[in-house]
Amino acid sequence: MQKGFRRKYDDLNDHLEKLKKADLLWTIDQEINKDRHLHAFVRWGYVGDVGTVLNSNPKRAFLFTNVTDAQGRKYKGNCDVQVGGTAGSPAIYALSMGIEHKDEGLSELSQKIFDKWSHAFQHPIPAVEIPSEEAPVHEVVLTGDDLKGGAGKGLDTLPVPNNTPGWDTAPYFSAGLFVTLNPETNIQNISQNRCSLKASDRMTGMWLIQTNGGAHQNWAKYKERGEKMPVALIVGAPPSLQVVGPQKVPEYLDDMDVAGALAGAPYRKVKCKTIPLMVPADAQIIIEGWLDPQKLEMEAPFGESYGNMSVEEYNHSITVTAITRRKKAILTSMISQMAPSESGVIKQLNYSAIMLNHLKNTLYIRQVKDVALHGPMIGVSRFTVIVLQRNTPKTEIWRALEGATTFMRSVGKITVAVDEDINPNNVEEVLWAIAYRTDLMKSVKIEDHQANGHAPKLRDREWEAKIMIDATLHYDMPPVALPKREIMEEARVLWDKAGMPAVTPRWKWYGYSLGDWCEEWTKCADRAVNGDWLINGLRTARLVDTDAVGGPTAGVPREGVVRWNEKTGEVDYPPGFPLKDRFDTDE
To answer: Where does the source fall among the domains of life (predicted)?
Structure first.
């Protein structure tokens, strides 16, 4: 234990100030009912633009400073509520990770995120224990009678919002981080899972069995031992720890040490008041408790990130033994449910980074350039896109597809491999590649026995199938049918001069070659741009017999291209003209 050990990283208050300076925070000081309107208010900031993955995304975080509840209680001056401050948009997530992100696209940001996670996993910084009297999260301590009695006691003193008002059956901590301990290794795990209020001194936690995460594994060990399990819930973690919660961290690492590596400084930790766990000293709120692994409690419905309500099920019942907090605390909540959402962005960028790390550095598929897990509506874990270098061997393409679908038990129900010219974060481009670059008889593989994972429960069997699609170029194809880049850029200058509204491209905006092209056609195109198209008409003026080429739409082979000789002003014909290419038309 070190007395006087100073904090050298951002806590949540610092983070909110940085969001404000970056124009990424809305502060709402009008009265907002946390039971009915708070999350609905935030949702309006998301439904207006499905482009959660777009660089032009205008989404901001929300800080509510005048929260009330349906019973008329007021929390102003005691506890604010923040939503969307960890990953409300890629720009907000970059700030949480301490990454410079200005005008880059999502692929460039993903590479920076990949580099930072890789470094953190390889170079964790051990947390340092400080005394309780120096821990901001121990400014207020509630135990015993302060927790019992229902209304106005314990958990009921916190402005925990309803996340899906009209469907959820209780207020939920949706951004809380559960701290659990592996009793065999004494390594702590921190995981983000939903947590509902049941009484002023009781709550429930849902740790998804299907993903086989650390919290569930630790619970299984306590159950086998027949021992009660200590649990702490972190609410309002510093940003570099909040992003660790949904991440898949190697089991041999303490998550707080990984957060220190992301922050570039050791975390300050403190002993809990009533249970044998260590928690971040600079959190806003800590809820301590015990659960009996032999007992479960009915929990949910709750609106989940895969876009459906999770209906009632049996989950962990936690008896609260202490609540510690700052005098003026900030309770964090996460916009989840149907993507686009904050939970979608954080999982998308987290999972994409570790998937990329797995394919490149574990499977050593060096041709892998990028990985993107699609977020809007799908909720990340169902649709994966892998970007590979052009002309990657088929064996490596399929090794990447197989590796991506087996890395995490339930991620990759639909996995697609594409070339570098495809933006993996743009579904329209991915569908374009599937539509025109696949031979479905040999480009698609369907396999059984994929875990159902974080999704509506299957009613007909215990698992489902997965589909892998090789949508890379199988051979050279003609150029993308859009004006050339330099011409589009010239037109953009004219657009701006005309006073037109600012525009950020969402889809492909200029054409480029895919290999099936020749120099003569480039010369013809240049003449057309320069107004000399009449010359191109002279080049093609010699007509050919229909039967000689087999009929309309017969192609001209590259070795059979007619050339305009600029020196002589005449047409040069190849030997054997007219020639027909080997592609036939199916009439």
So the answer is: Bacteria
Q: The CATH number of the domain where 238 resides is what?
A: 2.30.110.10
What does the pLDDT look like over 186-198, one tens digit per residue? 999 999 999 999 9
One-letter amino acid for residue 133 of the chain: E
Q: What 3-state DSSP class applies to 179?
A: strand
Total domains present in the chain: 3
Same domain, 181 and 239: yes
Beta strand ranges found along 111-261 (DSSP E) = 128-129, 140-142, 172-173, 177-181, 188-192, 195-199, 202-205, 229-235
Quick one: 127 and 34 in the same domain? yes
Hey, what amino acid is at 7? R
| Amino acid residing at 13 | N
Residues 6+ apart with CB under 8 A from 347: 246, 305, 373, 375, 379, 380, 381
The neighbouring-strand residues paired with 287 are 233, 323
> Has residue 143 been placed in a domain?
yes
Q: Alpha-carbon distance 170 to 196, whole Å?
A: 6
Contacts of residue 183, Cβ cutoff 8 Å, sequence gap at least 6: 218, 221, 222, 225, 227
- Look-up of token digits 């025109």: 436
Q: What is the pTM of this model?
A: 0.75
Residues 77 and 114 in one domain: yes
In tens, the pLDDT along 286-326 reads 999 999 999 999 998 877 766 567 778 899 999 999 999 99
H helix or E strand, kind and range, residue 215: helix 214-225
| Helix 12-21 and helix 90-97, axial crossing angle in degrees, nearest 10 | 130
Residues contacting 361, CB < 8 A, separation 6+ = 118
Q: Tell me 361's DSSP state.
A: I
Task: Give the 3-state secondary structure of 491-516.
Answer: HHHHHHHCCCCCCCCCCCCCECCEEC
Q: What single-letter amino acid sits at 332?
A: T
Distance CA 161, CA 158 (A): 9
How far, in Å, CA of 164 to CA of 169, rounded?
Answer: 9
Residue 181: strand pairing partners: 188
Show the low-confidence residues of the chain (pLDDT under 70).
47-58, 103, 209-212, 305-308, 337-344, 346-347, 375-381, 409-410, 451-461, 583-587
